[in-house]
Amino acid sequence: MTIKNVKDLNKIRKTSLATQKKHPKKVLVCCGTGCIANGALKIVDSVRDGLEKRNLKDVTVEILKETGCHGFCELGPLVIIEPQETFYTKVKPKHIEDILDKSFLDNEVIEPLLFTNPVDGSKITKYNDISFFKHQQRIALRNLGKISAHDMNEYIGVDGYQALAKVLFEMTPDEVIGEVTKSGLRGRGGGGFSAGRKWKICKDIKADKHYVICNGDEGDPGAFMDRSIMEGDPHGVLEGMMIAAYAIGAKEGYIYVRDEYPLAVKHLEKAILDCERTGLLGENILGSDFSFTIKIARGAGAFVCGESSALMKSVAGEVGEPRAKYVRSVVKGLYDEPTVLNNVETLVNVPTIIRKGADWYSSIGTKKSTGTQVFSLVGKVRNTGLIEVPMGITLREIIFDIGGGILDDRPFKAVQTGGPSGGCIPESMLDLPVDFDSLTEVGSMMGSGGLIVMDDKTCIVDIAKYFLEFLVEESCGKCTPCCEGLYQLLKIVERICAGKGVEADIEKMERLSENIMLGSLCGLGKSGPNPLMSTLKYFKDEYIAHIKDKKCPAGVCPELITYEILDNCTGCMACIPACGYDAIEGKKKEVHVITQDKCTKCGACYAVCNFDSILVS
Amino acid sequence: MIHITINGKVVQAKDGEMLLTVIRREQIDIPTLCHHEAVEPSGACRLCMVEITKPSWDGWCDYVTSCLYPAEDGLIVNTHAPKVNELRSSILDMFLARHPKSPEIRQLAAEYGVMKTQFEEVVDGDNCILCGICTRICDTMGFKAISMVGRGHGKEVAPPLNMAPAACVGCLSCAKNCPTNYIEYNMKNGGLTIWKKDFEMIACTECGATTITKEFAEYLSVNRDIPFDYFEKCDACHRKELAGTMGRIANWDREARS
Amino acid sequence: MNKRFIVKPELCTGCRSCELACSFTHAIDGVRSLTRINPIDGGFKDLWVPVTCLQCDDAACIKSCLVNALKRNPVTGAVELNHEVCVNCMACVAACPFGCAILDTQTNLIVKCDLCGGDPACAHFCPTKALVWELIKKAVKKTG
Question: Is residue C12, in this structure, part of any structural domain at all?
Fold first, then answer.
């Protein structure tokens, strides 16, 4: 049906809510990319078959929900039984019969599939009792894992497009901008610029056309929050864009999605099509004067295309290289017209801000960084995944309460924030409240919200090398300091890792980094040396250990470590076949010996030894 | 007209013209490697960076590429501030590490005191500095026969699919404007080879001298409305022809008078 | 500008003073440039024709330039070549039907007559007044 006015919209909402009430019993299957990779689509099929067998075929749509990502991807596929909120992890098709019989039709709980608390080994039944979820506050991720990702009616059922109706009929564009400015919403793409102010600047420029672009080119290694949002709540993104477009007077919008996100593209395409069919996109939306269209622009996945000027070039069909921004893209962006470019997460927050008000939003978080932030928590923590927490929460709370602490109870060493251009934060700063400004102050950044936790077995020089490798690989190659400078930084770090560093290298790196930051064309180059500079600042000792003592304290850099077999070797011979290079010799029940010349330091012997007889030093 | 201060001297400039233009007009020497007046500035080499400030900026300075920064009234520019000089030599050092064999780079680096790079030299580094002058000129001229391929350290200039580019007319503008003379071409026996594509040069019908390729002449003839026979003689023979025509007229005049 | 450059072959003796004047006037850093004017044998006894750019109205050189390096000076009427913009593609050299855009092989620059920005040196130095830079009115009277 078409949605010609607010009345039509509310009718759908009512119907949707009534259906929900009629069928409180639901099976939610997480169909985020992580869970799909783990076989969620097979689970969906099994549930569908199971429902058919139980003569529930007619109400399958109401019962079975293919939801967006819950964020707890490592335990996928996830299945939740409503209304009990029973949370099952690592579900396989063979479990479905049991789940349907016992848990869905009856109120039983299938213990083996429940989440195991990594701290004490107890089983937790309910979704919201798990510490990973308990400490979160979900605004941007509000609909993820709750509704069918591609069903517009369900989105409308959870107050979807109410904010759009509100701005179109109750607010002027200036009031919308005022509300968003007042809410304190800052760009979640990394820059942290006030979204409201950006809109205001753009609106105030007289031009033939204004554009809204949604930046879904998420390129940081390990970050997948934008992906999850686009996959799991595409209508939320569209509604945010529509509100932004209304505020600045844009008639056309683009969503820039990388081609590596096929599911996001699929869901967004469906959402756009649904909106166009019903009239939520197009001419005179909801019977107002506001007209707006959205197109999807697919990027080829270059990291640099997340940079605003490169992104706009890419949307326009040119080579995605940044340009110098003495004239900002808000003023002269896509096709040289004023353009608002907002990140997915920024836009998806907007409808809620409009619905609940700026005061409500600014009451969350800190004074200067309001609201919540989505992080992807990965690395050496027990619970990894996507989380949304209020700004100002401490790193300790994130890592130890939500993340459940460090894997294997090893000591915490550092946390890397902000993606490849961010920095490493040491243990002494664990109580740092996380917001835009505090992170920048300590030499890191919010970035798009990546959090990589490291334990004592992580070599900090190796980490710096990893990020530099990434940045060198992803540098667009336009300007010299970024392309050549980062390459040379990498060469120096590689030399240090190989035990060939000299003391002068540290100063050389510092000076080169300064020049790269000063001389680079775009933000990626300017922040490129960050991972090196922050590790050099907080972990200088480790660099010096590599350079002076030719030792890698964490036992990672192959050239700086040796593998030895200790006297407590039982002579079990397990390590001999494990070594692919015939470096280990020994007889049964005699202490084995590693021939150092042949050893490639791969660690295979260490992995198979059951007696802790292999010493890495 | 606006006024800006460059190295202590107040100079006039047009509002919005790029700082580099003003600086060069004042005969102040700052190096560039990616700048060519025929094409839009790109800001790739970063050598033309200058220090700018304004009295209202409270002592704060910014560092910008002068080729892309529009002049504003009251701007104070320092083209050779210590930080700028250090940055320039550092960038030239990076260039030298990447292109150790390029005589042009070596000379420019030496001018900034970099005789030998402190970084690791790129083994078999070529002389293409990825300034993009060739590709931008090709784009501006309307051929778009070559472009940047790849990214980062492995980027290179190449025609599509590394095959003889259909769009190339063999005008040689890419090769002739390459700051490091990296682009190779071969001209012999009335033929030309560039980007793996072979061209035939137009030979003067009078003396056989060659000027441009047949493809280029055809392109100009079709797209620029120039009669093709204009291209069939070399400039020297054209001049002789003109002298002959004018000579005949003058001779009539002379004979008529006598 | 109401002045016009006039060539009178009947007065030319082929002394080549114009070439010298042109060469030195357009010298760059003390290096002589290729002359833009050449007295060429007109094919008859004692007849020399000083050949130089005619500053055509519908100039083939301007049409042939793909980077807009050639522009007409609205004051002097001369077609001027901006060397900073020129990419040396030789299009104008090939396109000029009078051969008056020339490649200076010493400096590798394409050169053409620019009327010295409004005061042609060759006219100053021509001992026989075969080259004159004169007011248009006068010229109209004489020929008309």
Answer: yes
